[in-house]
Amino acid sequence: MTAFLILPVAGALSGPGAMAQARWLGEGLNTVTGPVDPMAAPGTPEAAPTIFRYPGRPSLNFYGAPGLMDMPSGEAQPDGQIDVGVSWFGGVGRYTLSFQALPWIAASFRYNSLANANFAGFETYYDRGFDLRFRLLKETDRLPAVTLGLQDFIGTGISSGEYIAATKTFALPPSRFGNTGSLKVTGGLGWGVLGSFGSIASTGTRPAYNPNSTGGQADYDSWFRGPFAPFGGIEWRPTEKLGIKVEYSSDDYVLATQDTNVFERKSPINFGVEYQINDAIRLGGYYMYGSEFGFNIQIQANPRVPATPLAIPAPQPVLVRQDPRTDPEAWSTAWAGSREVPPALRDNLIEVLDPQGITVEALTISAHVAEVRYSNRRYWPQMGAVGRVARAMAQVLPPSVETFHIVPQSGGMALNRITIRRSDLEVLEYEPDATAATDALLGYSDPPQLSPDAALNTGLYPRFTYALQPYFEPSYFDPDKPIRLDVGIELNGAYRPAPGWIVGGALRYKLFGDLDGGRPSNSVLPHVRSDWAEYAKYDFTMRNLYAARQWRPGRDLYARATVGYLEQMFGGVSTELLWKPVNSPLGLGIEANYVAQRDQDQLFGFGQYDYEVATGHATAYYEFGPGLLAQFSAGRYLAGDWGGTFSLDRTFDNGWSIGAFFTITNVSAEEFGEGSFDKGIRFSMPVNWILGQPSRQTVGTTITPITRDGGQRLNVPGRLYPQVRAAHRKALDDQSVRFWQ
Fold it and tell me: Is the pTM of this model over 0.90?
């Protein structure tokens, strides 16, 4: 069972003060053609770029991977591409989520169904699987694209197979009737199910599939073992939208044709026709194995190409100061004779920035140096807010102030001190290489303690905020009902008496749903998560109610303490300490918790389970290249087991995040139960990607093959690292172009 998440991230996509010319957005991505004038009124043709599909983007097979029908190809999707595939033929259904994590590696998670199978005790048999694809060669004028793949390599393994595939694209000569398009030719070798028909040799003995296994483990001893067989096919694209496919399949479908008689396999030849309906949807119809008709729906998206162009007013241009020789009085520093900050300067900054979604929290100023501390309510990435604060300072502050310190804050904590000279800001705005120059001229350092002479925004504290919104809580992969869902309304409230303090909570009322119909737990471990269906039986619940404080105990250090009803199933005390230097990609954290399990009605009681546990983890965070975040945690989990969790996430500077994780503890596969160990995928999507309006909100979810009790962590509101990382140097460097937008 997994919960629908709403996380604080944001996006901002507006142009710099000069015309933005055409540029490639990435390998295989759409091209934005221009010129584009970001100063134009939103909704006008000048404000919105023209977007068209990059020619030759691969279509997907029934497994959600680039390919023909059942067979894979050697191609790779554009970097960052997300695809959802739904396919069906002869009682075989596949529902796949695929992600091109890097230009050379792709991953897929798939849910399979076999109708009328009477297999393993189920009328319709459901199975989960993970795939990995590695591009070995990129297609050139002379060389084909070559990919090595592992299919269903972690799961029960009933569809497991390995392959190496090559694909070459040929432009066809025009005929007297016009352009004849392109032809893609694919050939490869497959093992496992992809080597079960027409095998030509063998690479040893492949272990037999065990239908009684708990699944979920990588069977390394099976990879590229056993008989292997050739496969191949062609795809003719007479136009960019239309595709015609023919393939020779090396999959004998032993389970579906011989073990369960779901359909009859009469031929290895498959035929298909596909059509690109629009930029996001591709449909296909097929004749499979000489006996069955099928269909495939491909839903396509890329985080870097928003579904709706973001409409956001361009920032004000930098106000360039007059030469001091022409207006010496304006450059006077007489106003700085008192240590007290002129309230008018603070109020003017608030007046300029508050309508832009930026809250000024404090202003410290002297004759030549000024520091603004602010919180960003609207923009993702943070660099977009940094640029707007710098422009506002240039617009409002006296000409003698030359050095700007810009300090983003989160929950009362100062996260970074970004320094830029005002004269550099004035010169760079319209320079062609402004982005590269800004990278060199911005300085980053750990912010000092707030000056006692700072002018505070006295209207910020205390304050109370609330929101009433719908919630959706899904559960996946119950064999009796693969998708369950609860829908209701949620009331969130937060009281902030002072910087760094919060008292928050959430109440829910379920309107309808069927989560309470899930399977009862058979876990031999303490039921810290597997009783989720029991918790779903109550309509009115208190999701959480807590008090928290976060603060800076020292240089490069961040701290948090939280007490209360922390999440749906546990309440108690949680503490956290994070070391994260501003200029380092490395962060180290430690968390310690002592919690008790809440009653299933999720009100105020703790007595139903009479279960208490001390849990906590030491965690290392590291940021690789643009947008890659690795995290390793080791410690004690809610069921009392000890182990570690590794996760890898791809983040984008508009707020998208997609990742995967797995946890290994001292709980054996037999004790853990179905799935063998905890693992899953997660994503969050900024709502502005869909709505086209600036926002810090995202929607997302975590998908696990099955929710068991081993390897489960406490869910605590306000963990430190996501707050801190977003405003540190590595993240800001990745977003540098946004400074001028």
Answer: no
